[in-house]
Amino acid sequence: MLFRSCCALLGLFALAACNPSAPEASGETAVAATEGPAKVEVRGDSTGYGLFVDGEPFYIKGAGLEFGDVEALAAHGANSFRTWRTDNGEATGKEVLDRAHAAGLMVTMGLEIAREREGQGRGVFGFDYDDEEAVAAQLERVRAEVMELKDHPALLMWGIGNELNLGADNPAVWDAVNGISEMIHEVDPNHPTTTMLAGIGPELVEDIRERAPSLDLLSIQMYADIENLPQRIADAGWDGPLVITEWGATGHWEVPTTPWGAPIENNSSVKADLYGSRYRTAILSNREQILGSYVFLWGQKQERTDTWYGMFLASGEETESIGTMEELWTEKVPANRAPRLDAVTLDGRGALDAIQLDPGQTVPAAVSSSDPDGDGLRYRWEVREEQKDLSEGGDDESVPQLIPGSIDAPEAAEVAVTAPETPGAYRLFVYVFDGQNHAAHANIPFHVGDYEPVD
């Protein structure tokens, strides 16, 4: 069977022990008290599933984190985070786990697995899963990573690869995933295995059932479509345990675009509201099957814009979505909250208005915002080129060129914006700061000169 449930291994359980929604299983542990490995189990049957750490129920309240602030995550009420690889380029896997343990967090540790699709950035792309020697070499590389980290007390589970189904055609990838999962269960009896999937569907579930039965649970990654998660799970025919390992802002592939193809990003307050509604309706509503989730991203990254997916600004300030998650995790309103952003206009128009300017034309821009705690606000505006270095699947992107001298008095709520002399696609950004390490943000794409419509 696909999941290695404790019920199946030990025989009949009392229903309350297996069902995470039962009163006896409603608590949520912190990290294991011992310095040895925690015993982590997926328990359950057709009535419900739960994750247990050293015998105590553990519902994942977490975030995706690679270079982010571990201590801040704990302070905001989370109990776990996930990684994408054992060595993120700045810290080793052991250093990551040590830091998590010191903060009272547990880690779903990612194992970097080669992708069949072409891509850029870290990892191996264009991998041939019919190459038996390469597959065997990957298995041995992963074995060494597992052996090094398997006994750490902050380890929660192993994540075998990230979105290996994205842009892939060869189902043999799941044979390789199964081989890795079987290897892990041989050398590490204490931690479950999963694999992170881009979405879920009947064919994908059937491939994994047939080819990767060693996995203990599945992990799903969805953005705006997470609002349809219950139906997606039902349509896929999956009745086993799940974790949602990426969810958050509406994806850049899911939003309206300008006639020249620029995606229109929600402002930070719209995002925060969506984080709250999506968590309640898609994740908390199915605690019998979903063992918790990791919101994306506890940090900052450049993907289409520098604000699209990160919950922090590049300068370190927290956005409103962090306060939303703190309230959801702790059921308490944060002591100080981020500014609310009501509207941003360029030449009296909004992001959906396909704004076209002449080279060198000067027009007004304004932001309307407020602070729920009455903190004084300050502003920063900038113009950048539209992103041209487009990635797939979260691969690395370069930071678009800043256009200096485009904003008159860039620290005011109302400014004058002078369009660049060079025709092309650009984006106006505004950031609102409360002086308490919180910020709001929004941007408006615009085009200088004529453009070719994109179908």
Automatic annotation (TrEMBL):
Domain of life: Bacteria
Residues annotated as signal peptide: 1-16
Gene3D superfamilies per record: Glycosidases (3.20.20.80), Immunoglobulins (2.60.40.10)
Pfam family of the protein (one): Glyco_hydro_2_C
InterPro entries recorded: GH (IPR017853), Glyco_hydro_2_cat (IPR006103), Ig-like_fold (IPR013783)
UniProt KW keywords: Signal
Domain spans labelled Glycoside hydrolase family 2 catalytic: 69-248
Protein name as annotated: Beta-galactosidase
Classification of source organism: Bacteria, Pseudomonadati, Rhodothermota, Rhodothermia, Rhodothermales
